[in-house]
């Protein structure tokens, strides 16, 4: 099964999800081509030249940063030229903007939010979640028709190890773009990107009231952790949405995820269950968070927070 991966980059850096998608591509055991669509593709070809990549296609476009129409035009040309069996992209805001349109226009099989892929004979099997992650289902794509899949970030480890793929260039006629990238808006000063934190102290409705949040802000600072929250704290207006973990918040994969007073609803788990080490504190021994936790304590979160504060 030949696989085409579309690399994603922002502000001059390849995004981690690209290397994760390459890992998934390797599982399909066919030739892996990585397409780099950029103003200067050579800035990124080195970063995707990892073990398991057979070829890198550099597609030079006028725009430096992502634009939907430009990527749509380029991917249509790539599929037309390379005729891959499978096209893989990250399930990201960028891809969602153009990949479904490519699939619809070219008549490709399609699934989003995929977190496992396998082969069953000549068929491709993609596993994805339905009904807000309450159900996991396998979607089978019979052989003979190309398939485009959007893969969930953090579901695969990043591909690594030196590669030796050659770089070929694909010339494209310039695409008309209905939208222009003008600037990046910075995260408000003083706020952080929880998706990049190594240690998240995450609090949920179990904290009880808004006034107790400052205690956890102080604890996070002492521990060298970043504070994140479950959705009810955002809905209540206690914390900004940039701190929310979950299906409608951010997907995180820190080294340590310490969850205090979070029940573990499927929508919350969807955003953190691939964290390297999950530690949960909850007064309810039946809380679903314990199903994904590596370590857990049935305890009052205030007691645990006070003890932790004494240790540092
Ligand atoms: C479409 C959709 C999208 C959603 N997206 C998200 C999302 O992105 N992120 C998200 O988080 N949720 C999301 N939700 C909401 C989700 O379904 C849950 O309602 C939410 O995650 C619950 O948050 P919680 O665990 O903090 O609160 P609760 O479910 O109320 O759990 C509170 C927990 O705290 C424990 N507790 C109480 N007191 C203490 C104490 N003193 N010490 C220790 N433990 C204590 C309780 O036993 C309980 O388990 C979404 C829902 C929908 C329908």
How would you characterize the overall build of this protein?
By secondary structure, this protein is α/β, with parallel strands linked by helices. The protein has helices at residues 16-27, 42-48, 68-82, 93-106, 213-223, 231-235, 266-269, 289-292, 301-311, and strands at 3-6, 9-10, 13-14, 32-38, 55-60, 86-90, 109-120, 123-130, 135-141, 147-151, 166-170, 199-203, 226-229, 256-260, 277-282, 295-298. It is 27% helix and 28% strand. The strands form three sheets. It has a nine-stranded mixed sheet, sandwiched between helices. It has a five-stranded parallel sheet with strand order 13-12-14-15-16. A two-stranded antiparallel sheet has the order 2-3. It is elongated. The model has no long low-confidence stretch (mean pLDDT 94). Flavin-adenine dinucleotide is lined by residues 132, 204-206, 230-232, 244-249, 261-263, 265, 267-268, 271, 281-284, 287, 300-301.
Could you give the topology of this structure?
Layout: E1 3-6, E2 9-10, E3 13-14, H1 16-27, E4 32-38, H2 42-48, E5 55-60, H3 68-82, E6 86-90, H4 93-106, E7 109-120, E8 123-130, E9 135-141, E10 147-151, E11 166-170, E12 199-203, H5 213-223, E13 226-229, H6 231-235, E14 256-260, H7 266-269, E15 277-282, H8 289-292, E16 295-298, H9 301-311
Parallel strand pairs: 1-4, 1-6, 4-5, 5-11, 6-10, 7-10, 12-13, 12-14, 14-15, 15-16
Antiparallel strand pairs: 2-3, 7-8, 8-9
The chain binds flavin-adenine dinucleotide.
């Amino acid at each position: 099964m030949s696989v085409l991966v579309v690399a994603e980059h922002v502000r001059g850096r390849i995004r981690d999800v690209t290397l994760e998608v390459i890992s998934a591509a390797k599982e399909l055991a066919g030739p892996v081509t990585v397409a780099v669509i950029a103003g200067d593709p050579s800035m990124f070809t080195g970063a995707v030249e990892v073990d398991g990549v057979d070829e890198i296609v550099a597609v030079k476009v006028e725009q430096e940063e992502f634009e939907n129409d430009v990527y749509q035009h380029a991917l249509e040309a790539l599929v037309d030229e390379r005729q891959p069996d499978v096209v893989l992209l990250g399930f990201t805001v960028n891809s969602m903007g153009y990949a479904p349109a490519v699939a619809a226009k070219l008549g490709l099989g399609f699934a989003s939010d995929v977190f496992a892929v396998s082969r069953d004979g000549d068929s491709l099997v993609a596993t994805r979640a339905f009904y807000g992650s309450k159900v996991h289902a396998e979607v089978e794509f019979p052989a003979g028709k190309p398939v485009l899949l959007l893969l969930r970030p953090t579901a695969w480890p990043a591909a690594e190890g030196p590669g030796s793929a050659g770089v070929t260039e694909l010339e494209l006629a310039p695409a008309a773009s209905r939208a222009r990238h003008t600037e990046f808006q910075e995260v408000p000063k003083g706020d952080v990107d929880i998706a990049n934190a190594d240690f998240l102290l995450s609090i949920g409705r179990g904290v009880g009231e808004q006034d107790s949040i400052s205690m956890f802000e102080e604890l996070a600072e002492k521990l060298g952790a970043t504070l994140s929250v479950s959705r009810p704290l955002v809905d209540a207006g206690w914390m900004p949405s940039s701190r929310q973990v979950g299906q409608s918040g951010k997907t995180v994969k820190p080294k340590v995820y310490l969850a205090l007073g979070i029940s573990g609803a499927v929508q919350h788990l969807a955003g953190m269950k691939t964290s390297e080490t999950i530690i949960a504190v909850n007064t309810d021994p039946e809380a679903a968070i314990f199903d994904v936790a590596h370590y857990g304590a049935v305890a009052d979160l205030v007691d645990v927070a006070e003890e932790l504060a004494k240790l540092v």
